[in-house]
């Protein structure tokens, strides 16, 4: 491979210019950003201080007070324009995602497509923020629910979906009448700068076309944990949507509940698939390969545990081993590559440590070694397939790298119990053509995850469904379905249109 000779700093600068980001925003600061493709620096950003972050939240609050008065379908028009800007810049932004995170090109573009999709969804939603009308026990009264804007929404995002996660939150938050303050991962601030520039372009068009929108409706804060904590603790942020590791959620969750703020926690997963005797093995092979090796194992929904029925184990596992041995690893910007780099050296160390633990626990490892690229600073690995005697040690944790633990099972009820016997509860799947197994898996006594699929892998969700998981995954839901309700406050209204005052539950309280 020729990774070492790529000049991604120059290409990054060109893309950022095309996307409307001024060069002063990524030159001269102290936050160094490297591309995992080469391991070399592609930008240096100035970080926001704590006091700047506090001031930005106050300004976002002032924006909220104005924006909440704009009718929701008009707010939707701004999000429609944002979707148009994203469509026009899909190629450039997708390429930048690939450079900053190391995703293969179709996945970089796919991430931007997901942003476009959620904008479309939110535009429709802007005319559908429905409340209920509820039967009341009192005559000549009407009871109803209204949904009102909530306030400034804090968004903290992880490196691996550097821009889509913002859009899942921001597109909904905005049509719901809120302003947003976004702190992206310190590993991926360049794509965030680009998204902010596209938003500002959409905002300008919105105002030029007669729309009313305040300044500071969407604010970007650059920095690490310290500025993230300002969002978490600030009394003018009623909801923080935080995406990242379970360790981050453990720090953030209690602080939010301490001040009675709402949380959408989207944390780590340890996703499994069960392969049953009747499974279509060709389809299973493709489903497992994409879910386990795609994005170099760096999706929250990546398949990490595979339970294979003993009757098909010897047919499927050798085919998987072959696929693991032949998958194209390398420069994610080149056509044909399926597995790009890990985000950094720490991720590589974590992967090697987990493989070491797996061996000590009796695992047999295929792959997992470093792939040479001529660069000491970029970390490419061959995805690892580990046959494990049982579900112990590293199998119970999320290691954010392409490691698939494979285990044999014989009894369906036992494998269901094992499936659910980890602390995380994000995504899951079953491969079967047996209707009873499929229906049981998605039933109340089946998978305990937020996402349960049949005959496809656990990764690669679409925006129409609510996204998130249970247990240590945090319980949050964002994106589609009725996830929008988290970004609004519910008001129950009772209206008396009569001339008497009947009290509920027949209570009497007559005064002269
Ligand atoms: P991370 O936890 O290291 O960081 C995530 C974000 O949290 C970053 O912006 C970071 O600066 C911020 N942060 C960390 N500690 C904080 C604190 N105490 N207060 C405020 N902010 C804080 O995660 P990462 O390495 O960027 O991402 C990988 C992890 O994210 C994996 O565990 C993955 O499963 C998870 N993830 C989950 C989802 C989901 O929807 N469930 C989606 C993507 C990634």
Q: Which regions contain 5 or more consecutive residues with pLDDT less than 50? A: none
Number of strands: 23
Strand content range: 15-25%
Write the CATH fold name of the largest domain: Aldehyde Dehydrogenase, Chain A, domain 1
Largest beta-sheet details = 7 strands, mixed
Whole-angstrom Rg: 25 Å
Structure in a nutshell:
Keywords: NAD, Oxidoreductase. Its EC number is 1.2.1.3. The chain is α/β, with parallel strands linked by helices and 512 residues long.
Describe this structure in words.
The protein has 512 residues and is of the alpha/beta class. It has 2 domains: 49-267 and 474-491, 3-Layer(aba) Sandwich (Aldehyde Dehydrogenase, Chain A, domain 1); 271-463, Aldehyde Dehydrogenase, Chain A, domain 2 (3-Layer(aba) Sandwich). The chain has 14 helices and 23 strands. It has helices at 8-18, 50-67, 72-88, 90-101, 105-125, 164-175, 189-208, 225-233, 246-258, 281-293, 310-326, 345-360, 412-419, 435-441, and strands spanning 31-34, 41-45, 133-134, 141-149, 152-156, 179-183, 218-220, 239-243, 262-266, 271-275, 303-309, 364-366, 370-371, 380-381, 384-387, 403-409, 424-425, 427-431, 451-454, 466-467, 470-471, 478-479, 488-496. The strands form 7 sheets. A 7-stranded mixed β-sheet has the order 12-15-16-11-10-18-19, sandwiched between helices. A 5-stranded parallel β-sheet has the order 7-6-5-8-9, sandwiched between helices. Strands 3-4-23 form a 3-stranded antiparallel β-sheet, with no helix packed on it. Strand 13 and strand 14 (380-381) form a beta hairpin. Helix 4 packs antiparallel against helix 7 (189-208) and helix 5 runs parallel beside helix 6. The radius of gyration is 25 Å and the shape is globular. The termini are far apart. The model has no long low-confidence stretch (mean pLDDT 97). Bound molecules: nicotinamide-adenine-dinucleotide. Nicotinamide-adenine-dinucleotide binds next to helix 8 and helix 9.
